[in-house]
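Researcher: Hi, I'm a grad student and pretty new to this. My advisor asked me to get structures for two proteins we've been looking at. I'm not sure of the right format, so I'll just paste the first sequence and hope you can take it from there.
Model: That works fine. Here's the first sequence with its structure tokens right after it:
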Amino acid sequence: MDQQQQQQDNNPIEMALQEYKEGIGNFTKKMPNIAKKYNAFTEACFADGKLSQKEKQMIALGISVFSQDEYCIIYHTKGCLDQGCSEEEILETVGVTAAFGGGAAMSQAVTLVQECISTIGNNNSQLQ
């Protein structure tokens, strides 16, 4: 085994990509009909259209980060790089994701959490 192959084998990112590739291969063998249709669907979704493949990979990366899906983060970061994204474009994408994630948390805090405090707080005082 050469040194480059050995480094790839010890690289957690390369290992995760290999695990995914093996996993999807095993799934495809066991469920070829579903895998074929899923692959066709995702290929259609990521094809150039009004949005470029690059833009679609950036969207997918943002969603992957927001959902904390490590395999998809790796896969779509690679997709962004493969589509020519610069480091700055990738970091801006995850910055928007962080703003959205923080905004989602804040919107729930200032609405639903406050409503629960008001409702449960009033009900708790009535129950005591």
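Researcher: Oh nice, that was easy. Here's the second one.
Model: And its structure:
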Amino acid sequence: MHTEHAPTLDPGVHGKPHGRFRVTAWCLPPSSAARRARELLRDQLSRLPISADVLAELEVVVAELATNAAHYAPGPYELRILHDHDLPVRAEVVDAGTAATLIEHILDHPLVVPEHIDELELGGRGLRIVAEFTHGRCGAQWTRLCGTGQIGTGVWFDLPIQHSRT
């Protein structure tokens, strides 16, 4: 596990740093990336006011992203949880691949399946599940792996945690 801290900006204080957000990253083993990502996410979110149904959907999302990373991209693989004011606000699966732009496009433009094609024959279903379960609060970006410093792809989704900022 790797944890980094970075200052956050509070626009109410003229853009001066206020507080810190925290990024916690775990390595995901290629042979069990999905299972490990589900376990870690469940552990991080289980004490928060999230319904069991929503938590189950988020586990499906993180498992899908970890499976895609391990299947389609080179390792290493990481799960990151971003915390703001000590609450988890975003999860991200990172790999050493170069597909950030393609993944972002797929998430922004869901595939429309013609009636005469069997949807199960088409790829991209997993990313459609991610977009559906996160209500579109997801994306992809170029990033740097915490463990190695390599540039790679991070696929993120926002967590449905409500908290007030004081």
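Researcher: Is there anything I should tell my advisor about the second?
Model: You could mention this: Residues 52-72 form the longest helix (21 residues).
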